[in-house]
Design a protein that fits this description.
Length: 94
Amino acid sequence: MARESSSRGGPRRGRGPGGRRGRRPKVCPFCTGELEITNYHDSRMVRRFISDTAKILPRRRTGVCAKHQRRLATTVKRARMLALVPITEKLVRK
C-alpha cells in the first residue's frame, strides 16, 4: 500500500533538469548603489519594501543584505511616524 504522491521522494514537477541552478542570486540594491536609504521622505522607495498590508518585507523576499535591512526597518518606521506611509492597511477578505 504505497502512496502514489508524497511531498518527499516523489517525482519533481515544475523544475527542469538541474533544479535550482537557474536562479540568479539576489543582490542588495543598496550595496550596488542603485537606491539610497537615508531619505525616508521618498515614499515610493519605502513602499517598495512593505507589503500590501503595510508590513516590512523580509530579506529573503527583497534581497536586501542584513546591514541595509536594519537601516531600512528604521527608515520605514520613521516614515510611519510622519504619516508618509500607512501604519496598517485594511485587510480585505473575499
